[in-house]
Fold:
Amino acid sequence: MPNLRLARRVGRIQPSATLALTARARALKAEGKDVVALTAGEPDFETPMAIRESAIESLRKGGAVGRYTPVGGTPELVQAVIGKFRRDNALEYRPEQVLVSCGAKHSIFNAIGALVDDGDEVIVPAPYWVSYPEMIRFFGGTPVVVDTSSTGFVLTPEALKRAMTPRTRLVIVNSPSNPTGAVWDRAAQQAIADAVAGTDVAVISDEIYEKLVYGGQHVAFAGLSKDACERTVTVNGVAKAYAMTGWRIGYVGGPAPVVKAMNALQSHSTSNPTTVAQLATLAALQKDPDELPRWRAQYQARRDRMVAGLNAAKGVKCATPGGAFYVFPDCRGWIGKRHGDAVLKDDAAICEALLTRALVGGVPGGEFGAPGFVRFSYAASDAEIGKAIERIQKFASELV
Ligand SMILES: Cc1ncc(COP(=O)(O)O)c(C=O)c1O
Structure:
């Protein structure tokens, strides 16, 4: 048998922990176990009918739907993205500053690929979305993780400045955040913008949860100032807001030279995102679906229920997040305790015991750079949320 050597760059990355845990919860379900999987970051709603209809109609029509489009998206979709940024974020982009990709994950991959060289440092506030450090390492960079758990999951300019070195190339901003749901207000984001002003540091602002903010206001980092706009790649997509995770459409607005490099990278990997998905996205971006306000209200009610339910579980402390669809309770009170013969030595052991003994799936905080915490998604039905809370509370009461 040939000894096939894998590239060093793939040896630097781990498979996505959230996807792995979701698969595990699914497998238990397939075995007939009544698992409540709060692992995936995926809306439980259907893609709005109007969006699906527009895809069906373009498939019936044939022609362009079966063909390549320009690498970065059809001219109509690029215009719709420009319109969205103008309407929602007061950002003005030209077509050469926009790129549509196969999901926001792909947009971020392209952006990091375009910006990070071997040896470059990238500031990643923790808790962080699992893919940022992996992508940075894949491209030869070093993630410089800055813990924000003692400052309300908000990166302070002091902590940012302490982490910056002459090798710092990029800072990642993600508000609303996965996994914490934290929403950084204007002052907090302005402080970050001020801290990088006058440097050559770029910013990726991942705003995929923009539409899921409860009470507060979403702030687009690039909208803070001309300087912020000139250094920021703003990432967004349709997956979370419009219940379109399977359609795989993400997009960016950013400085033209960076977007041009991202486009070149994409031209040699996926080429254009799937044409029918682009055509469906056009309908979504021209006007928010009518369902959105109702969904938002439902998410908010679920959030409140989850937070109250978790805080009523012995040993758990859960802050109320301002956005996204995750809660991120502090479960350090459980560490060192036992459930039957299972010893909860860390958050991985907690999630293992929760899944196999309480039949509730969550993701260990360590995967997001926050050991001792657990992420639960509340993009689940009210019945599932009720069941999960009951089981978590019972589990907590059985710990010794
Ligand atoms: C913070 C964050 N960014 C980006 C993505 C990727 O979104 P998409 O499904 O559009 O690739 C996710 C999805 O989990 C996310 O949570």
